[in-house]
């Protein structure tokens, strides 16, 4: 159980305007919104005043983490102020490279943590804006881009030992002619989800059993249980869950970084009889070699990780080392859509399924677009792939996710799904004085 359940986010809104109107950024915490002024000039002379969409994005963190995250977002967002918006939106690959290779801020990483996530907020806000101006949901906007344009979005620096631009292009071209079929399939069927709702630590056995039964009734083909508190408790909870859901429904497990290497292997082996589909974050998320050892030690149970994966270079190494068998990208952990596109291409190169992390604030809304695009243009399949679903805080979003029979319904509204309702922004704003 998370002892600090103050879910919140650093929030960025990019406004367009003629000279004299502003670009604004501000921070939001659910259960608290933080205000951070970045107010300068925008430029969009072609569109009428007042009818311009805004680009919205956020970085999911909690509590005081937002103060630091917001300062970083403001510092990165400054770079956009006053620029002609079309030129920026027409070259988001160029923007990504410019922001990530900014030497003054790069010193703070490179390419990890607060600064990388801040770049992600700015990049994602621009993608939201681009999708709204195109009148399309982000997944569809990406899915209709030429393969060459998609390759241009990715910075292949440090990746070419396993993935070159030419290899990425040929992978994308493989699926190009049949993209329309998968776009239609998404509109018809949506994308498979799994639910973490039944599995939080701290629930009574009765509540666990009830929520497992409800998940099955709702059409989910996979659930997830948090583990790692006490092995006897975990064995009992897994037995209850398996008994309730039967053998057809998959049960994933998530240790949230609790274990040492040997402990992880021993613990997971004690859960093996309940047939877990994966063990997630068994140990420190940076410990590549430990993950590889755990993966060897618990096979055929697969190791899943990625929600704390700092960047595409770490991701590459995990894949090279056989340290993960399920890739859990996160919409706000890395530097935005572009870096996640690199990670989708890398995962496909290693034939590893992508099952995104979600939950928190707005992560379901954001990451569904990446999985749907992955299906249409990169992996070409939903086999063995599921997007995490957690059933809280959706009511604060302009276009909340919709689930139908255990599937995410493909969103049709223009944008990246990252815009919060004005009333929620106002109500939960954190001023720092509270
Ligand atoms: Mg997790």
TrEMBL record:
For the region Disordered, give the residue spans: 23-50
Q: Does the keyword Membrane apply?
A: no
- Cofactor or coenzyme needed: Mg(2+)
Which intervals hold domain Mandelate racemase/muconate lactonizing enzyme C-terminal?
205-301
Task: Tell me the keywords, alphabetical order.
Answer: Magnesium, Metal-binding
Q: Which Pfam families match?
A: MR_MLE_C
InterPro entries hit by this protein: Enolase-like_C_sf (IPR036849), Enolase-like_N (IPR029017), Enolase_C-like (IPR029065), Mandel_Rmase/mucon_lact_enz_CS (IPR018110), Mandelate_racemase_C (IPR013342), RHMD-like (IPR046945)
In alphabetical order, the GO MF annotations are:
hydro-lyase activity; magnesium ion binding
Which Gene3D superfamilies does this UniProt record tie to the protein?
Enolase-like C-terminal domain, Enolase-like, N-terminal domain
Recorded hits in PANTHER family, A to Z, give: ENOLASE SUPERFAMILY, MANDELATE RACEMASE (PTHR13794), MITOCHONDRIAL ENOLASE SUPERFAMILY MEMBER 1 (PTHR13794:SF58)
Q: What is this protein called?
A: Fuconate dehydratase
Lineage, uppermost ranks: Bacteria, Bacillati, Actinomycetota, Actinomycetes, Nakamurellales
């Amino acid at each position: 159980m998370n002892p600090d359940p103050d879910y919140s986010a650093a929030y960025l809104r990019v406004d367009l305007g003629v000279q004299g109107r502003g670009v604004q950024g501000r921070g939001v915490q659910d259960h608290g919104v933080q205000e951070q002024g970045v107010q300068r000039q925008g430029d969009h002379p072609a569109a009428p005043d007042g009818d311009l969409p805004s680009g919205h994005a956020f970085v999911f963190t909690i509590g005081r983490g937002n103060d630091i995250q917001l300062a970083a977002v403001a510092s990165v967002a400054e770079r956009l102020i006053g620029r002609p918006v079309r030129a920026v939106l027409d070259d988001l690959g160029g923007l990504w490279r410019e922001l990530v290779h900014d030497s003054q801020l790069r010193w703070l990483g490179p390419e990890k943590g607060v600064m990388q996530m801040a770049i992600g907020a700015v990049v994602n806000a621009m993608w939201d804006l681009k999708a709204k101006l195109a009148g399309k949901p982000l997944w569809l906007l990406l899915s209709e881009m030429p393969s060459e344009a998609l390759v241009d979005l990715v910075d292949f620096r440090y990746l070419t030992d396993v993935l070159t631009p030419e290899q990425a292009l040929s992978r994308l071209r493989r699926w190009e002619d049949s993209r329309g079929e998968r776009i239609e399939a998404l509109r018809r069927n949506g994308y498979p989800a799994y639910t973490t709702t039944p599995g939080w630590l701290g629930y009574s056995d009765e509540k666990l059993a009830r929520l497992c039964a409800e998940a099955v009734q709702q059409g989910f083909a996979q659930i997830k249980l948090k583990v790692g508190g006490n092995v006897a408790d975990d064995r009992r909870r897994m037995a209850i869950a398996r008994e309730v859901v039967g053998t057809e429904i998959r049960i994933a497990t998530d240790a949230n970084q609790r274990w040492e290497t040997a402990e992880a292997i021993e613990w997971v082996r004690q859960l093996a009889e309940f047939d877990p589909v994966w063990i997630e974050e068994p140990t420190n998320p940076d410990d590549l070699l430990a993950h590889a050892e755990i993966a060897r030690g618990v096979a055929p149970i697969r190791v899943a990780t990625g929600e704390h994966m700092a960047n595409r270079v770490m991701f590459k190494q995990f894949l090279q080392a056989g340290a993960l068998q399920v890739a859990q990208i996160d919409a706000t952990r890395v530097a935005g859509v572009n870096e996640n596109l690199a990670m989708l291409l890398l995962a496909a190169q290693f034939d590893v399924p992508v099952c995104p992390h979600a939950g928190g604030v707005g992560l379901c809304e954001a990451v569904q677009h990446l999985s749907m695009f992955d299906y249409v243009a990169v992996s070409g399949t939903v086999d063995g792939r599921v997007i995490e679903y957690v059933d809280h805080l959706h009511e604060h979003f302009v276009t909340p996710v919709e689930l139908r029979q255990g599937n995410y319904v493909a969103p049709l509204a223009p944008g990246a799904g990252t815009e919060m309702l004005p009333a929620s922004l106002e109500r939960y704003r954190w001023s720092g004085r509270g």
